[in-house]
Amino acid sequence: MDYKSSGVDIEAGYKSVELMKESIKETMRPEVLGGIGGFAGAFDLSGIKNMEDPVLLSGTDGCGTKVKLAFVMDKHDTIGIDAVAMCVNDIACSGGEPLFFLDYIACGKNYPEKIATIVSGVAEGCKQSGAALVGGETAEHPGLMPEDDYDLAGFAVGVVDRKDLITGENIQAGDKLIGIASSGVHSNGFSLVRKVFDMTKESLDTYYDELGTTLGEALIAPTRIYVKALKNVKDAGITIKGCSHITGGGFYENIPRMLPDGVKAIVKKDSYEVPAIFKLLQDVGGIDEEMMYATYNMGLGMIIAVDEADVDEAMKAIEAAGDKAFLVGHVEEGEKEAVLV
Fold first, then answer.
1. Contact indicator for 340, 251 with CB cutoff of 8 Å
2. What is the CB neighbour count within 10 angstroms for residue 262?
3. For residue range 143-165, what is the model confidence (pLDDT) as tens digits?
4. Residue 301 pairs with which residues in a beta bridge?
């Protein structure tokens, strides 16, 4: 009797690490100390001495049941981007710069090539956000998970000077709301997606004219990372008064999280074109419009509040980062809530 006969292949684990090393190297920052394979990731913080009052930020999240889509499509090279995006976008939402990221993969059986492909996506997300991939864990769980299944989660740490923290406390009536386009469904609401559409290869390979691609490709599109866009706004000298990452809970739950007491956010639904994937999801599933906005990003992955005088420059800065920006609403006095009109 040995460990391999119980379902855990240590040699496969070693091979996974070797295969993913090249992807990990591409994410390195000068602050990373030591090589790959240590017991802890080491990161030099001396660079933050130039900040007046540095504050560490952290975020942890996973991809939810979107991983089921990756299983059916046998496409594992982008799901890692989702894991990174869900963490670093939250850090950027508070005004921070992501510094480093760690991933955790739980699998029924360690297939080294598949694990390395997943990690290549994690590395890509780290490159897009400027975070170093300093470590991770692949845990083989025979008997607990089916052999072909896995789950992916991550943890990110960032930093911000206290004076640059985005708290929302100074949002006031008259401020404008700018929405930044999403890349699709991102990583929220997939339990409902899987109820609406058949999660079969035949269904996911079906081409839709309105989507301009197959259903599967539209759904698995990786979560947009907004680190560069928000940094561009900051570097343009514009104060982001509030920022809302539109994730689980959609507009109604997430927008009020950035608001102080005494104001409400008015979002105009016709201020931008809702992507076709959401229209298809709503029509096929017979989902009420209010439920759609309470569950999905509906084409806006991030919403920021700025002074009216800063709208044009903020939108230019966002678009210079390669993102699309829309003036989607404003702030009024009232009970703290999101109102869609």
1. yes
2. 12
3. 899 999 999 999 999 999 999 99
4. none
Which residue type sits at 104? Answer: Y
Of all residues in the chain, what percent are helix, strand and coil, respectively (each to 5)? 40, 25, 35
Q: What does 188-256 look like in DSSP terms, one character per residue?
A: S-HHHHHHHS--SHHHHT-EETTTTEEHHHHHHPPPPP-HHHHHHHHHTT----EEEE--TTHHHHHGG
> What's the sign of the alpha-carbon dihedral 305, 307, 309, 314?
negative
Give exposure, 137-160, as e/b (b: 16+ Cβ within 10 Å): ebebbeeebeeeebbbbbbbbbbb
Look up residue 321 and give its two tokens.
Answer: 């980062």
Helices (H) and strands (E) in the chain, counts: 12, 14
Distance (Å, whole) CA 118 – CA 288? 35
By the 8 A CB rule, do 69 and 220 touch?
yes
pTM above 0.70, yes or no: yes
User: Considering only CA atoms, which of 17, 2, 7, 36 is closest in space to residue 138?
Assistant: 17
